[in-house]
């Protein structure tokens, strides 16, 4: 089996990607497309950590907001109403 770090470097050096980060971004996108349950886990975690809004989390999970609300409820995650301050929004954007 090949070494992942070497494969990432080879893909970048072959000209297919501008950076190793771009290789990883593409790999994560492909993984999330293939495994929708991971999209849901990512969305729930980002929502729970106040990194994204409910609507954005639903979008990440690939479901309607109403369905995402059900997912949160099933997991015992309470929703909070309110708006982020400009500073909180900027901090979340940088994460």
TrEMBL record:
Coiled coil: none annotated. It comes from Halonotius roseus. Belongs to the UPF0175 family. This is UPF0175 family protein. It comes from the Archaea.
């Amino acid at each position: 089996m090949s070494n992942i770090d070497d494969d990432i470097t080879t893909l970048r050096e072959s000209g297919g990607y501008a950076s190793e980060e771009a290789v990883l971004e593409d790999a994560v996108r492909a993984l999330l497309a293939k495994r929708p349950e991971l999209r849901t886990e990512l969305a729930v975690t980002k929502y729970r950590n106040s990194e994204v809004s409910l609507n954005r989390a639903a979008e990440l999970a690939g479901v309607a907001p109403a369905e995402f609300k059900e997912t949160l409820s099933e997991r015992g995650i309470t929703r909070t109403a309110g708006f982020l301050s400009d500073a909180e929004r900027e901090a979340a954007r940088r994460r």
